[in-house]
Amino acid sequence: MSVLPAITSALGGDWRERTSAESRLLPQGKLSGPMPWVIAIMIGLTVVATASGLALRNTARAARADVAGGVTVQIVHGAPRERDRQARAALAVLKATPGIAEARLVPQQELDALVEPWLGTSAGDDVNALPVPALIDVRLAGSADPARVKALGQAVRRKAPAARIDAQASWLAPVFEAVHALQWLAGGLIALLAFATVATVLLASRNALGNHRSTIEIVHMLGGTDSQIARIFQRSMAVDAAAGGIGGLLLGVVVTGLLGRQFAALGSGMMAAGGLAWSDWIAICCIPLAGVLLAVLTARLTVLSALRRML
């Protein structure tokens, strides 16, 4: 009965002595089992999913802000001279319209650069012979709502019948929908990882209770409370969860950094706007703390519930 002195110490005496005795009451095996590694994997995946969701949110916000007041006017006409005349007339109408922050006729060189990947510029190609529409890039002082775009189109077509006007946000609507769906996917993945963490801690706590059932019964006979026993298990779980959380955070940050470099190499302005702000990194660094709290709370509730059914 060598366990009795430790049990007696756990039920009374100085707080430090009681804490030390509680830690010796049941074999802990800290960091030797699979629990820290499992939690590290869960936290690492959660960090990557959270960083991806935040980056997608930042990308969508930047894109919406950039195209919120953007309008494109196309002059679609087969005759180059008439197309240029209507383009100049439309530009004059736009500059005279209140609420227009900027109106710019896109130069021919920029149009040629836009169609170059599809039409080519090799010798013998005559890009200017193609009926490429004239483009006018317009920036409104406010948002390009449908009513405002319709009214602007009516005013422009009085002087340029071949004009077509579109809000730039409408072009990116499918992109915004896809980004929104990916954000929901990231949120669902985070919820599933949290559920998997809870299930893992629950199973580990029940297994530990079964392994130390006889010792727990002795503690109860000597006056030990359920809270004292639960404190032993939750302290061990806190150590394992903290170790796994730190490892998972480092793993997730490394993976996030590598993914960020890959997307930055694309050279897309939209991707560059999806970087993580300092507030996002603070939220990411709080993930291991949330994981530790979740693991400790799950272990405590599991042990207390099992003890009430056990005795």
Automatic annotation (TrEMBL):
<dbReference type="GO" id="GO:0051301">
    <property type="term" value="P:cell division"/>
</dbReference>
<feature type="transmembrane region" description="Helical">
    <location>
        <begin position="37"/>
        <end position="56"/>
    </location>
</feature>
<keyword id="KW-0131">Cell cycle</keyword>
<keyword id="KW-0812">Transmembrane</keyword>
<keyword id="KW-0472">Membrane</keyword>
<keyword id="KW-1003">Cell membrane</keyword>
<feature type="transmembrane region" description="Helical">
    <location>
        <begin position="241"/>
        <end position="261"/>
    </location>
</feature>
<feature type="transmembrane region" description="Helical">
    <location>
        <begin position="181"/>
        <end position="204"/>
    </location>
</feature>
<protein>
    <submittedName>
        <fullName>Cell division transport system permease</fullName>
    </submittedName>
</protein>
<dbReference type="InterPro" id="IPR004513">
    <property type="entry name" value="FtsX"/>
</dbReference>
<dbReference type="InterPro" id="IPR003838">
    <property type="entry name" value="ABC3_permease_C"/>
</dbReference>
<dbReference type="GO" id="GO:0032153">
    <property type="term" value="C:cell division site"/>
</dbReference>
<dbReference type="Pfam" id="PF02687">
    <property type="entry name" value="FtsX"/>
</dbReference>
<keyword id="KW-0132">Cell division</keyword>
<feature type="domain" description="ABC3 transporter permease C-terminal">
    <location>
        <begin position="189"/>
        <end position="308"/>
    </location>
</feature>
<feature type="transmembrane region" description="Helical">
    <location>
        <begin position="281"/>
        <end position="303"/>
    </location>
</feature>
<keyword id="KW-1133">Transmembrane helix</keyword>
<dbReference type="GO" id="GO:0005886">
    <property type="term" value="C:plasma membrane"/>
</dbReference>
